[in-house]
Specification:
By secondary structure, this protein is mainly alpha-helical. Helix content is about 65%, strand content about 5%. A 5-stranded mixed sheet has the order 2-1-3-5-4. Strand 4 and strand 5 form a beta hairpin. The relative contact order is 0.10.
Length: about 500
C-alpha cells in the first residue's frame, strides 16, 4: 500500500509541466546534441559535439538520451525522458531497500529524497548528475549491506562503475567521502573478498577509459584529468561565488526545500545514533562532513554538486521523524524555522496578489506561495507540539501540491520557449545564420540552445556583418538582430527574432 502511494506521489512532480519542457543551452542542449550526434553517426564510444571530441565527459548519460531519441524521435521531451524515469524509479528502489527498517522509515526516506527541490530539478535536466547519483545510491546501499556479507561488493562495483561512466573521475569523491564509514567498519569492509567483487562492475568504465587512451593518447588524460579536473578543483571553470565557503549553506536554503528546516533535529538525532553504533547514522554523518568539506574547498561551486548530500539527508530525516522519542528542544528549533519560512512564503504570495511585486505568472505564483506558507505554518504548529510524523506528512502533502501547481503553471523547465516556436517556422534543412555579438566559444549557452533546434551547425555572423549579409534565414536575440526594411520578419517572441532576407 505504501509503495503504491509513494509511486503516486512521485508521479506528480515528475510529470507536472513536463510537456512544456525545453532545453537549456549550457548543459542540456549540449548533451542532447552530442547524443543526437552519436545516433546519427553510429559512433558510441567517443562523445562529439559537431565532430569535435571535448574529452571531458564519459558517455553513459549520452547513451541513455540517444536510446530515447532512437525510440521516440529527437526533441526536448525525449531528451529528458530517461532522467525523468530514472528520477521516478530511484526513490522506489530506496523504499524497497530500506523496508528492512520498517515501512514507515522506508516511505519517509524515499518521499523525502524524491521531493527535495534539487533532486526534482535535476530529474528534469539533461545532465550527468542524476545518472551518477543512481550509481551512488547503489554504492551506498552496498557499503551498508557489506558489513555482514562481502557479496555486496558486486553492487558496490556496479554503482561506482555507473557513477564513473556518468561523471568521470569525480566519482572518486564518493569513495573519499565514505572513508569515515570504511575506517569505522574496516574489519568487515577492508577485505579482499569485498573489493575483488567490485571489479566486474568497474570493467565497463575501465574499458571506456582504455579505448579513449588508445585513440587519443596523452591528449585524453591531459584534458579529461589535467585540464578538466585541475581547473575544476584548483582554478575554477566559472566565476567565483561572492559567498565563498558559505555557498553551499546558502544554496541549501533554496535547493534543499522543503526539508532543510528539519536538519537541526535530524543531525542531532544522527549524532546520538552514531555514538550508539548505528551504521546508517555513521555513514550519513561521515559522508556529509567529508563531502561538504571537499566541494566547499573546490574552486568551482555549482548547486548540483550538492546532489549526493540528498541521500544522507533523507536517511537522517527519516530516522528522526519516525523515531519513537519524546519531544525535545530540537522540535521547537525546527518549528521556528518552518514558521519563519512559511511566513515569508505567505508574505511573498500576498505581495504578488496585491500587485506590489510583479510576476510573469501571478496566479500560479500566488497559489504556490500560499501552499508552501500554509504547509510550513501547519507543520510548525505540529512540530512545536512534538508531533514530528504528522508535521513531516503535512509538509509532504503541501509540497507535492506545490510542485503540481508550479510545474504546470510556472513551467520551471521551460528554458527557451521562443526557440521551439522559432524552429517550427524554419523549413526543414534550411541553412541558418546566427547573428551574435560574441562567438560561440564565448557565448556558448545561447548558441548550443539554438544549435539543437537546427539540422546542421549555423553560420555565425556579427550584427555588423548581418547588415551587409546576403539572402537567407537569420536568427538572433532581440536587440542584437535588428531587421532591415527589406527583411521579412517571420517570428519574434521570448527574446528571439527570425527573419528571411529575400534574393
Amino acid at each position: 500500500m505504501r509503495g503504491a502511494l509513494l509511486a503516486g506521489l512521485l508521479l506528480i512532480p515528475a510529470l507536472a509541466g513536463l510537456g512544456a519542457s525545453s532545453l537549456q543551452g549550457c548543459d542540456e542542449a549540449y548533451y542532447a546534441q552530442m547524443a543526437r550526434g552519436m545516433l546519427d553517426r553510429g559512433e558510441w564510444v567517443v562523445p562529439r559535439y559537431d565532430g569535435t571530441a571535448p574529452l571531458d565527459k564519459p558517455p553513459l548519460t549520452l547513451w541513455l538520451v540517444a536510446a530515447s531519441f532512437a525510440a521516440f524521435g529527437v526533441g526536448d521531451l525525449p531528451a529528458r525522458l530517461p532522467l525523468v524515469v530514472l528520477g521516478f524509479l530511484l526513490p522506489l528502489g530506496l523504499f524497497a531497500w530500506n523496508r528492512w527498517a520498517g515501512d514507515a522509515y522506508a516511505f519517509t526516506a524515499a518521499s523525502t529524497l524524491g521531493t527535495t527541490l534539487l533532486y526534482v530539478q535535476l530529474q528534469h535536466a539533461v545532465m550527468t548528475d542524476l545518472v551518477a547519483f543512481a550509481g551512488f545510491v547503489a554504492f551506498a546501499a552496498a557499503l551498508l549491506g557489506a558489513r555482514g556479507d562481502p557479496r555486496w561488493g558486486w553492487l558496490a562495483g556496479l554503482g561506482l562503475g555507473v557513477a564513473t561512466l556518468a561523471k568521470g573521475a569525480l566519482a572518486a569523491l564518493l569513495v573519499l567521502a565514505s572513508l569515515p564509514f570504511l575506517l569505522v567498519y574496516r574489519a568487515s569492509l577492508l577485505r579482499w573478498g569485498f573489493w575483488v567483487r567490485c571489479v566486474p562492475g568497474l570493467l565497463p568504465a575501465a574499458a571506456w577509459y582504455a579505448a579513449m587512451a588508445v585513440q587519443f593518447g596523452r591528449q585524453f588524460f591531459d584534458v579529461h584529468f589535467g585540464l578538466f579536473l585541475f581547473r575544476l578543483a584548483a582554478q575554477g571553470i566559472s566565476p567565483a561565488s561572492p559567498l565563498g565557503p558559505l555557498f553551499y549553506l546558502a544554496s541549501a536554503l533554496w535547493r534543499f526545500l522543503p526539508w532543510w528546516p528539519l536538519l537541526p533535529g535530524a543531525l542531532w538525532w544522527g549524532y546520538r545514533q552514531a555514538r550508539r553504533g548505528d551504521p546508517v547514522a555513521v555513514w550519513a554523518l561521515g559522508f556529509c562532513v567529508v563531502y561538504l568539506a571537499v566541494i566547499t574547498v573546490m574552486r568551482t561551486k555549482m548547486d548540483h554538486y550538492a546532489l549526493p548530500l540528498a541521500l544522507p539527508v533523507a536517511l537522517l530525516i527519516a530516522g528522526w521523524t519516525t523515531a519513537a522519542e519524546p519531544p525535545s528542544r530540537w522540535d521547537g528549533v525546527c518549528a521556528a524555522l518552518y514558521g519563519t519560512v512559511g511566513a515569508l512564503a505567505a508574505l511573498a504570495a500576498s505581495l504578488v496578489a496585491g500587485g506590489v511585486v510583479r510576476a510573469v505568472h501571478p496566479g500560479p505564483t500566488v497559489a504556490t506561495g500560499l501552499l508552501v506558507g500554509f504547509g510550513f505554518t501547519a507543520a510548525a504548529v505540529l512540530l512545536g507540539r512534538g508531533n514530528r510524523g504528522r508535521g513531516w506528512a503535512t509538509i509532504l502533502g503541501c509540497s507535492v501540491l506545490a510542485y503540481a501547481v508550479a510545474g504546470t503553471g510556472l513551467r520551471p523547465w521551460d528554458a527557451e520557449p521562443g526557440l521551439r516556436a522559432l524552429a517550427g517556422r524554419l523549413p526543414k534543412g534550411a541553412d541558418v545564420t546566427y547573428v551574435a555579438e560574441a562567438p560561440p566559444g564565448v557565448a556558448f549557452c545561447a548558441y548550443s540552445a539554438l544549435r539543437f533546434r537546427l539540422d546542421r551547425p549555423p553560420r555565425v555572423l556579427s550584427p555588423e556583418g548581418f547588415r551587409s549579409g546576403g539572402p537567407g534565414w537569420y536568427v538572433g536575440r532581440e536587440g542584437v538582430l535588428r531587421p532591415t526594411p527589406h527583411d521579412f520578419l517571420v517570428f519574434r517572441g521570448s527574446g528571439w527574432v527570425l527573419v528571411r532576407r529575400p534574393e
